[in-house]
From TrEMBL:
<dbReference type="GO" id="GO:0034015">
    <property type="term" value="F:L-ribulose-5-phosphate 3-epimerase activity"/>
</dbReference>
<dbReference type="InterPro" id="IPR006311">
    <property type="entry name" value="TAT_signal"/>
</dbReference>
<dbReference type="InterPro" id="IPR036237">
    <property type="entry name" value="Xyl_isomerase-like_sf"/>
</dbReference>
<protein>
    <submittedName>
        <fullName>L-ribulose-5-phosphate 3-epimerase UlaE</fullName>
        <ecNumber>5.1.3.22</ecNumber>
    </submittedName>
</protein>
<dbReference type="Pfam" id="PF01261">
    <property type="entry name" value="AP_endonuc_2"/>
</dbReference>
<dbReference type="InterPro" id="IPR050312">
    <property type="entry name" value="IolE/XylAMocC-like"/>
</dbReference>
<dbReference type="InterPro" id="IPR013022">
    <property type="entry name" value="Xyl_isomerase-like_TIM-brl"/>
</dbReference>
<keyword id="KW-0413">Isomerase</keyword>
<feature type="domain" description="Xylose isomerase-like TIM barrel">
    <location>
        <begin position="65"/>
        <end position="298"/>
    </location>
</feature>
Amino acid sequence: MHSDPLPRRHRADRRTFLLASTALTTAACRPESAAAHSIVDCSGKLSLGFSLYGMRDIKTEVAIQTLREIGYDSVEFCLLEGFDTDPARLDRVRRRDLRATLAKYNMCLRALMEHLPLSTDQAINQQAIERLKRAAALGHDLEAGDSPLIETVLGGGNWLEVRDRFAETLRKWAALAEREDVQIAIKPHVHHAVDTPEKARWLMRQVGNERIGLAYDYSHFAAQGIDMNQSVRDLAAYTLFVHAKDAIADGGQTRFALPGSSGKIDYPQLLKRLIENGYAGDFCVEVSSQIWKQPGYDAIAAAKESFRPMADAFHVAGIERPK
């Protein structure tokens, strides 16, 4: 069994220093036109973001401008098929334009969302590997941080039956992440095999590689009655990314809602616990497909409705966001 690796907050401090030093050197050597298209660096600060998973029908350049005007600091691109930022749809010119748009509106690109459930079918798992490679290439093309972050769920199955296979596959992903210079965050999900902090920690210990971490989303734990403070303490050392949304128990089923809309999650407390446990990444609003697939869904209205309670949570928690 692997022991817990060095807490990520200490590694993040070193990465932040190296990134800042590299950025200064690189900017001095770039032509002015290239430097003008560099992505804003949010590293070292907790930023408030919005996932374009909730803006499927809006062109990405428009979404970036709109989110900045609302007040968000950062964005997560969604790479799923049918979305505007599916890597297969983005040629070199479009990638350059997206990078320029992010720079123009001072928006940090903090993560790339994928959906790569594991399978006993090796052909499906190989497709996942190819999608990870395409996501990595896009992240580097867009300058999405020093090591672009790709986040995904792992899918369902009986935990005791699939956990060893999950660990084996994640070790392969770790090797790929080393080669491609990216990080991969897996997300515990209430309806999937990895649904609790204990299971997530077990996987992280088996993999034992800093290239593989967690995407923390308390709504999936809240739906199971898991204590928020304890879940942060259990997972903070492995957490690379955070999603925010509400969860409501509805007749034995879990219904997701916009963050802050139910009053069930103490977001200022959550932010404080994350900071106290060394997290300095993105706090990203995610609109569930349960919401955005509903007739009449308004993506911009959802982004506006989510912003105010989350911005207030930062203020109440006394956390300074990127300028």
